[in-house]
Specification:
Blueprint (H helix, E strand, L loop, with lengths): L6 H9 L3 H27 L1 H6 L3 H29 L11 H30 L8 H33 L3 H24 L8 H21 L4 H30 L1 H6 L1 H30 L11 H32 L6 H32 L4 H27 L4
Helix pairs in contact: 2-7, 2-11, 2-12, 4-5, 4-6, 4-7, 4-9, 4-11, 4-14, 5-6, 5-8, 5-9, 6-7, 6-8, 7-11, 9-14, 11-12, 11-13, 11-14, 12-13, 13-14
Length: 410
């Protein structure tokens, strides 16, 4: 058999039957990057809010990541149900879709409370001066989280219905599109929720009521008579708590570097797209591997087999244009919004170097996290995306800060 010699021919040979999936993923990832840059513009424009409410930035990566963790996993579980023929488009409480929707709402409430507590503990433990009170953080986290999650949930269910009707592979589009929604909606929702902070009597009372409601929801989910609902909540909580702690560490890294980022707000414009792209790419890989492992198409071995290597290669291949777009987009957005920038070439270099460094970690986490879940009898759809996205939040933030420092930008 003659080997193709041209670059397009080699790429087609590498992708094989995955060309259609690669197109779907690239479109979704491009949309993810574009809209994440909108979130970045918001982030770059509200540095004053973070200075007014010390400790709030610690919450931001975890709050954004929570949308992707909960609803990305929801998309993966529904994708597997579609592939295995167990999915039905009904929201009755006893159906696959109904129980998944209920579990997602319960986890949103409960984990928003947990993230607020984690952010406060992290801020105090790492000596963020004058950090806002825990009930203030609870109010911002729960109100902002619920507002954003209701929209993300509706869109995820709509996307699932579209996948069933039009034959899309949900594994290729769910993670990046959920990341899009999480990025775009979470920051404005949190910012809107800060309006409730600092009001005498109202904020402490509201924060207390929301905390009690979140605890009640979690207890109800863990004791629910519906087996799938109870299993999803019980399995998701530990990994979501771990993911939240890791993402809070990313927030601490950003909080500690806030003064430096303030010198070039264009770098903050890049942050959401940088973190979201790595999480979306890892989510695509995790989703594809999860479905193939559960269907027996890929073996859960220590060394990736041929099909797994093809999926890994596709993910890395998609990463280059995505991070190039992020760098160029951050430069364009900073130019349009008039914020200080280190220059187009520098932003592109930072995006590519930090992004591809993070991708090496993402690939390892997505593969081995999914394999370990299968080998230990856990649901890889529930564990894959949270493991990847939370770790990426921290690794991506550190890679970005280290790359910026190594290039002498700040």
């Amino acid at each position: 058999m003659t080997r193709p010699t041209s670059l397009p021919g080699r790429l087609r040979a590498l992708l094989g039957p995955d060309i259609a999936g690669a197109r779907q993923s690239l479109v979704a990832l491009s949309l993810n990057s574009t809209t994440s840059l909108v979130a970045g513009a918001v982030l770059g424009a509200i540095t004053g809010t973070f200075e007014e409410y010390p400790g709030l930035l610690v919450l931001v990566p975890a709050a954004i990541g929570l949308r992707g963790n909960i609803f990305g996993a929801l998309g993966n579980r529904l994708s597997t149900a579609i592939h295995s023929g167990t999915f039905g488009l009904s929201v009755r409480r006893d159906t696959v879709l109904g129980q998944n929707v209920l579990a997602s709402l319960i986890l949103t409430l409960g984990m928003s409370l947990v993230l607020a507590v984690v952010a406060k503990v992290a801020a105090v433990g790492l000596d963020v001066p004058g950090s806002i009170g825990v009930l203030d953080l609870v109010t911002i986290s729960v109100v902002g989280g619920v507002l954003a999650s209701l929209v993300v949930l509706a869109c995820t269910v709509g996307l699932t219905a579209g996948a069933v009707r039009y034959g899309w592979d949900l594994d290729n589009v769910a993670a990046p599109l959920v990341s899009v929604l999480g990025d775009v909606l979470t920051l404005p929702a949190l910012l809107l929720a800060t309006v409730l902070v600092g009001i005498d009597v109202v904020t402490p009372l509201l924060g207390s009521v929301l905390a009690v409601a979140a605890v009640v929801a979690l207890v109800a989910g863990l004791r629910a008579p519906l087996g799938e609902l109870r299993r999803i909540v019980a399995e998701s909580l530990p990994i979501l708590v771990v993911a939240g702690c890791i993402s809070a560490a990313a927030g601490i890294a950003l909080e500690k570097s806030l003064a430096s980022f303030a010198a070039f707000p264009a770098l903050l414009v890049l942050v959401p797209a940088h973190l979201s792209s790595a999480g979306a790419l890892g989510g695509i890989l995790s989703g594809r591997l999860s479905t193939k492992l559960l269907l027996g198409l890929v073996a859960p071995d220590a060394s990736p087999d041929r099909d797994a290597r093809r999926d890994i290669g596709l993910t890395l291949l998609l990463g280059f244009p995505v991070y190039l777009l992020n760098g160029l987009g951050a430069a364009a957005v900073s130019q349009l919004t008039g914020v200080a920038s280190p220059g187009v070439a520098t932003l592109v270099a930072i995006s590519l170097l930090a992004g591809m460094a993070a991708m090496l970690v993402v690939v390892a986490l997505a593969y081995y996290g999914t394999v370990v879940a299968v080998r230990t009898g856990l649901d890889p759809d529930t564990y894959g995306i949270p493991v990847v996205s939370s770790s990426v939040d921290f690794v991506g933030a550190v890679a970005l800060i280290v790359t910026i420092a190594a290039l002498g930008v700040i």
